[in-house]
């Protein structure tokens, strides 16, 4: 185990995204470019409402196949190596409103805001936070789903 790996494990045990940031600091990530990614998981963000962080893996578009085909990019980036992604469309979500302007109290039955589903393809853009950390963002409208009252 390298010194950097040991530092990562000791400093942030149990937090894979933090380990990845120590192992792969943003200055060691590939140059800025959009990344075609498949969402692999969603995790509610702490005490926030209707906001999630997303696991992802880099895909590539296969132009020789049908236009909607993508495949896992061998050796590509993912949320473990490069950090989780966030949906900018969710930044303004609260317990009463979902962006871009849905009043949640007006939803019938059990309808609620849903995270972006796994297997959804998104285009990620890497931004650098003030502290130098890489932040991966995408913009996708959330589904609102549920059952209608009878």
Annotate the secondary structure layout.
Elements: H1 3-11, H2 16-23, E1 35-44, E2 52-61, E3 70-72, H3 79-82, E4 85-87, E5 97-98, E6 102-103, E7 112-113, E8 121-128, E9 134-138, E10 144-145
Helix pairs in contact: 1-2
Number of helices: 3
Query: Biggest sheet: strands, sense, closure?
Result: 5 strands, mixed, barrel
SS class: alpha+beta
Strand order of the largest sheet: 1-2-4-9-8
Q: In terms of per-residue confidence, which ranges show pLDDT below 50 for 5 or more consecutive residues?
A: 12-17
The total domain count is 1
Task: Summarize model confidence as the mean pLDDT.
Answer: 81
- SSE string: HHEEEHEEEEEEE
**What is the molecular shape?**
globular
If you compute it from the alpha carbons, what radius of gyration comes out, rounded to the nearest whole angstrom?
Answer: 18 Å
How many beta-strand segments?
Answer: 10
Strand content: 25-35%
* End-to-end C-alpha gap: 60 Å
User: Which percent bin holds the helix content?
Assistant: 10-25%
Keywords:
150 residues; 14% helix; five-stranded mixed beta barrel; globular; two-stranded antiparallel sheet; alpha+beta
